[in-house]
Specification:
Number of strands: 7
Helix content: 25-40%
Number of helices: 2
Shape: globular
Oligomer: single chain
Radius of gyration: 15 Å
Distance between the termini: 40 Å
Largest sheet: 7 strands, antiparallel
């Protein structure tokens, strides 16, 4: 397993950041790294909620929420990844209130595809994932700010 971890301070209340993340099936509404997303379970939030994501420019993910602590922490399992070099993963979002803003820690533990070759691909994937998750957090901030003013 490999790990990518980022921390970022978002200028939005924790409840608004949580509201965006908790709208689990609709990530494509604000994240331009996702072309399309939708629920694949009856549950739309909380442990056991599932979604499908079509990634931009290509790839697909099937994900399940495996830990849910409102306003504090969400952990999502990447159950299946297609057309991308990731076998499985676990992404956690930890939120902390900080003077009206939110400190977000995003940690992604993942297993690259490729068996023994994964050791060579891993550093490249770490760099690409860091870039993608940096963009994710950049887009999360205005989405949360919109929720705060709604």
């Amino acid at each position: 397993m490999r790990n990518v971890e980022l921390e970022r301070r978002l200028d939005a209340p924790r409840s608004s950041v949580w509201a965006v993340l908790a709208d689990f099936p609709n990530i494509a509404d604000w994240n331009d790294g996702i072309k399309k997303s939708y629920a694949t379970s009856e549950a739309l939030e909380g442990v056991g909620a599932k979604r499908h994501c079509d990634l931009a420019p290509l790839g697909e993910l099937e994900e399940t929420i495996v830990e849910w602590s409102p306003d504090d922490k969400m952990v999502i399992s990447v159950d299946k990844a297609a057309k991308i070099p990731i076998k499985s993963g676990l992404v956690s979002f930890t939120l902390a209130e900080s003077d009206g803003a939110t400190e977000v820690t995003l940690s992604y533990d993942y297993e690259p595809k490729g068996g023994p070759l994964a050791a060579f691909v891993g550093p490249f994937l770490d760099k690409q994932l860091t870039k993608g998750f940096t963009g994710f957090l950049s887009q999360l901030e205005p989405a949360a700010q919109s929720r705060a003013t709604a």
